[in-house]
């Protein structure tokens, strides 16, 4: 078991992480990713039936946030391969961070989140970042290691979420 874990760890550490615009990713890649039933376990707002058209609508919506706020969601690449999407979305006066990885890339979450948080720390427009997690998420150690603290629970689009905050100044 230890040898297998070490091999997995080495593979994860070798991956070069890049952030690019979602519009650069093939729509079928995004549709396939968002159709994986394992995502629905922790995404209460995820709607079924993702196809190329739904992915195009999604990407257009995320690109509109870039136009409005000058910041938004990226596609994440590991060694040039699409592994998920996420980033910052302005919700009122707060910058919320989201991260949605393909199940085969869950091990990259900490590295991707750390790189994104470093971006937020360097960006003077972002005094703090919020995270909304469904109550089904039990393993919150990574958030705590980042320094995020729980500020309560909220309802968003009819679903309940745990809200965390990380000061970046």
What would you say this structure looks like, in words?
This protein has helices spanning 2-14, 27-34, 37-40, 52-69, 109-122, 141-146; strands at 17-21, 73-78, 81-91, 94-101, 128-133, 149-156, 159-167. It is built from six helices and seven strands; from the N terminus they run H-E-H-H-H-E-E-E-H-E-H-E-E. It has a single domain, classed as Gcn5-related N-acetyltransferase (GNAT) (Aminopeptidase). Strand 6 and strand 7 form a beta hairpin. By secondary structure, the protein is of the alpha+beta class. Helix 2 packs across helix 4 (52-69). The mean pLDDT is 88. A seven-stranded mixed beta sheet has the order 1-2-3-4-5-7-6, sandwiched between helices.
List the helices and strands and how they pair.
Elements lengths: L1 H13 L2 E5 L5 H8 L2 H4 L11 H18 L3 E6 L2 E11 L2 E8 L7 H14 L5 E6 L7 H6 L2 E8 L2 E9 L2
Parallel strand pairs: 4-5
Antiparallel strand pairs: 1-2, 2-3, 3-4, 5-7, 6-7
